[in-house]
Structure prediction request, 254 residues.
Amino acid sequence: MNPLENIRIVLVEPQSSGNIGSVCRVMKNMGITDLALINPHERHDWEEARRLACHAGDLLNARKVFPSLEKTVADCTVVAGTSARTGLHRDHAGLPREIAPIILDSAAYHKTALVFGREDTGLTKEELAVCTHIINIPSSKAYQSLNLSHAVMVCCYELFLLAADSSYQPPRERSPETSVEMRERVYERWSQMMIKTEFCAPEKLEHMMLGLRRIFSRGKLTDNDARILLGLAQQSLWVVDQWKKRKESSEPPI
Ligand code: SAH
Prediction:
């Protein structure tokens, strides 16, 4: 299948109706058709959006609406968030050109997503945490933040170029790549394990989890990998429970 059909463009709480229309146009120009909006407000001027979409009104009509990022990308493998800023929570950001092959390799077989933030405040740190990769578009220090639809264009252009290159062959994989839904289950279970085993204090958990998310996002995580990670956490939780029970009944620990 055409990998571009497996790429979802996600706009988180877009504020400008015109931007939504411009994004539709950019997407159609670059052969990408799946548009998801998270919590668009009720005062959007859809006529304005349609004017800016021009001949991409079909994408605007086909838009899907979701209540949260986690729900929007639950079925996706690679989820690339975009940020105008670098630094804290974003210091592993890559160029669109570096992340494009990672998205496309996965999009040959699975759903993937590119996530764009609010025009005024971008993506929250919780939303960035759901993303497996972060993209930063280099821009002038004098004004680093691009218009939303321009940022979508730069990213989609790299994907379009790579997909059009017929010499590009995405690698075949043995075990399917795992979804965001499964990843989130792993992170949930691992946080419980880290607290119960007293590996880290509750106030350090958030920071530790960011590190862990980054480690697990560095390579491809397959369904098999995710099942092993879930099993390991499950077994550790069980052992800690047994140990605590024995301690309470003053038996020697196992
Ligand atoms: N003031 C916000 C900028 C929001 S711009 C902030 O500092 O985060 C709206 C969205 O466009 C961003 O959330 C991001 O998705 C995208 N964007 C804008 N400039 C970008 C850049 N230089 N690199 C990557 N994405 C960018």
Remarks:
- The chain is about 50% helix and 10% strand.
- The mean pLDDT is 93.
